[in-house]
Design goal:
Distance between the termini: 61 Å
Number of helices: 14
Shape: globular
Mean pLDDT: 78
Strand content: 5-15%
Helix content: 40-55%
Largest sheet: 3 strands, antiparallel
Strand order of the largest sheet: 2-3-4
Structural class: mainly alpha
Order of helices and strands: EHEEEHHHHEHEHEEEEHEHHHHHH
């Protein structure tokens, strides 16, 4: 017996590895005397509005990392550090401004490049935007005559240019490389993940008069022609493979191992609106997941700020608020974590993970002996500096 499967119009943006469970495990480990998931962390300086420099210890190495804003290896030069903070946030601030526009006015290419600035503060937005325009001009030579530009022929032409001429391909070898979600790197290296290659495909097709729209498939992101002449999907990750709805149903059934054949609700073909905030929410969720799994909580936290700007509704924004609170907790920035998680519960009092979130909040209200996370002032900072000097005289960690 077949059962319908709706292609979701809304996105699940919280971390799929269950960040609440990760935070609960970290809290349990600390209670039992084990180091937290991110290593043994001590506060070294006051936050002074810029962020906290910490030393992270783990087996075999010792490195300085930044929670909040300061770059690695902060050398005491607050003027230089503040400049680096501003540089790193300029992409975020410009992205926030872009997301305040009406849907039809949002520049998808520039918005994606602004996200990529979180990894490259010197990224030349106009250079890469011009490259997309140049590619569209080259694509014109591959198009069929104007009176023969039917959907399937246009799809074939775009795919031939993108995959045969330009050699773009899905990065199956290193799928979870953050560069796969950064448009500048995708254009340079000509590899990416489904959503980033879909963006390139859609933007080229739009520029030659063949608009396409994203489809939030459960397996991975796909696209389709904006006009309703044919009900087909295109998989940019698989060299522009064209799938009919029945093909997609078969893929879903194979993936989920269902005995009964799955049926896709075709109503999504009736939605011809571009949803840029939903698109970027999914792209940013990929990045947040990658950084979270790699325990790169600083970058994951920065991505949550991008996500807040792109949130298509308050429900998504609140899930992101919870993830931000969990990340702050794992970074041992307890005051901020408490504020975020309490607001999450206030906005979602019946949240299914509410009890576990309340347990985490309670644990942060009871600092343990030796914790310095709630201690401010020069005295605490000086004490940490003295301890750091002692550490430095003991030789390198082995």
């Amino acid at each position: 017996m077949s059962r319908p499967v709706a292609v979701p119009s809304r996105l699940c943006t919280s971390l799929t590895c269950d960040p609440v469970a990760a935070a609960t495990a970290a809290r349990r480990a600390q209670r039992l005397g084990a180091p937290p998931a991110i290593g043994s962390v001590r506060l070294l300086t006051n936050r002074v509005g810029l962020g906290s420099r910490v030393v992270q210890r783990s087996r075999g190495y010792r490195r300085q990392v930044t929670t909040g804003s300061l770059d690695e290896g902060f050398d005491g030069n607050f003027e230089g550090a503040f400049k680096r903070v501003l540089e790193r946030r300029q992409g975020l601030e410009r992205f926030q401004a872009e997301m305040e526009k009406e849907d039809e006015d949002i520049d998808m290419v520039r918005s994606a490049l602004l996200i990529a600035m979180h990894r490259n503060t010197e990224l030349d937005i106009e250079h890469y935007a011009a490259r997309v325009e140049s590619m569209a001009e080259e694509l014109e030579a591959f198009l069929p005559p104007p009176d023969e530009r039917y959907p399937l022929r246009m799809i074939a032409a775009v795919s031939k240019y993108l995959y045969e001429e330009m050699k773009f391909q899905g990065n199956k070898e290193d799928y979870y490389d953050p560069d796969n979600s950064c448009l500048d790197k995708v254009l340079d290296q000509r590899v990416g993940i489904p959503i980033s290659i879909s963006l390139v495909y859609m933007e080229l097709a739009k520029r030659v008069g063949f608009p396409m729209i994203g489809v939030n498939m459960p397996l991975h992101f796909m696209i389709r022609p904006l006009n309703g002449e044919v009900e087909v999907l295109v998989d940019p990750f698989d060299n522009g493979k064209v799938l009919f709805v029945e093909d997609a149903e078969q893929l879903l059934g194979d993936h989920y191992g269902q005995d009964a054949k799955l049926k896709i609700d075709r109503s999504f073909f009736q939605d011809n609106n571009i949803h840029p905030r939903t698109f970027f929410t999914r792209m940013l969720t990929n990045l947040k997941q990658i950084y979270f799994n790699a325990k790169d909580y600083e970058n994951a936290l920065l991505i949550t700020e991008y996500q807040q700007a792109a949130s298509p509704n308050e429900e998504v924004a609140n899930f992101n608020r919870r993830d931000r609170g969990i990340l702050l907790y794992l970074m041992q920035r307890y005051r901020e974590a408490t504020e975020e998680l309490e607001l999450y519960l206030q906005m979602s009092p019946e949240a299914p993970d509410g009890e576990r979130v309340r347990m985490i909040i309670s644990s942060m209200a009871m600092p343990k002996e030796g914790d310095t996370f709630f201690t401010g002032g020069e005295e605490a900072a000086d004490k940490d500096k003295d301890n750091e000097k002692k550490d430095d005289t003991s030789g390198d960690d082995k």
